[in-house]
């Protein structure tokens, strides 16, 4: 069972209610017994040991905890784990494939879209949701999409540039795949 008490003690109080949920995280289905009050961010970080999802403010202001639920960006620090029962969750660990980094990850690496890296997972997942919906965003559209994610290290210039470069790479990749189709 994934418990709020796991970090403090190995024993969960006997009278603690639990709910069984089934959730797909990064393509892998999990059936878990969780406390109804367990936050999604804690399930991801402690329960599933996917530590790319960061918690910064616990109030949805910073966006470091952003994950995708059925493709939409959601701040996991104020969402209960039971709310994702039957849904698909993507964390930053789910962006890369066996063949390499996702173009968004490449863009952040190549265009220096990170410094300390704390906000980067949330920025990348927000960018993925944007580019899935709008493959050719303007700089203003990128800035608007990322406006719910805070970075205390950069001036956002390289983050925005990273997303625009990733968008161009994704469009080029899609064009190559279309040209190769029979």
State Rg: 18 Å
SSE succession: EEHEEEHHHH
Going across the biggest sheet, name each strand in turn: 2-1-5-3-4
**Secondary-structure class:** alpha+beta
Mean model confidence by pLDDT: 91
Ranges with pLDDT <50 over ≥5 residues? none
Integer tally of domains: 2
How is the main sheet built?
5 strands, mixed
From the N-terminal CA to the C-terminal CA, the straight-line distance is 49 Å
CATH topology of the largest domain: Ubiquitin-like (UB roll)
What is the CATH top level name of the largest domain?
Alpha Beta
% residues in beta strands? 5-15%
Determine the number of helices (DSSP H or I, runs of at least 4 residues). Answer: 5
Q: How would you describe what is shown here?
A:
The protein is globular and about 55 Å long. The mean pLDDT is 91. It contains five helices and five strands. It has helices at residues 40-47, 103-110, 120-133, 139-145, 157-180, and strands at residues 19-25, 28-34, 66-69, 72-75, 88-90. By secondary structure, it is of the alpha+beta class. It folds into two domains: 19-94, Roll (Ubiquitin-like (UB roll)); 103-176, [2Fe-2S]-binding domain (DNA polymerase, domain 1), CATH 1.10.150.120. A five-stranded mixed sheet has the order 2-1-5-3-4, covered by helices on one side. Helices cover 34% and strands 14% of the residues.
């Amino acid at each position: 069972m994934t418990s709020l008490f796991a970090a403090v003690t190995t024993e969960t109080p006997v009278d603690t209610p639990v709910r069984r949920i089934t959730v797909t995280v990064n393509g892998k289905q999990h059936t878990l017994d969780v406390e109804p009050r367990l936050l999604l961010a804690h399930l991801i970080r402690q329960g599933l040991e996917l530590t790319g999802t960061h918690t910064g403010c616990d109030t949805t202001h910073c966006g470091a905890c952003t994950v995708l639920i059925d493709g939409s960006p959601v701040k996991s620090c104020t969402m209960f784990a039971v709310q994702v029962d039957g849904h698909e969750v993507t964390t930053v660990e789910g962006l890369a494939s066996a063949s390499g980094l996702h173009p968004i990850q490449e863009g952040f690496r190549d265009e220096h879209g990170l410094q300390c890296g704390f906000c980067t997972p949330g920025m990348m997942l927000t960018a993925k949701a944007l580019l899935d919906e709008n493959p050719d965003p303007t700089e203003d559209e990128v800035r608007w999409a990322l406006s719910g994610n805070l970075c205390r290290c950069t001036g956002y210039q390289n983050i925005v540039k990273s997303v625009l470069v990733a968008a161009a790479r994704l469009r080029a990749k899609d064009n190559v795949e279309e040209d190769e189709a029979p």
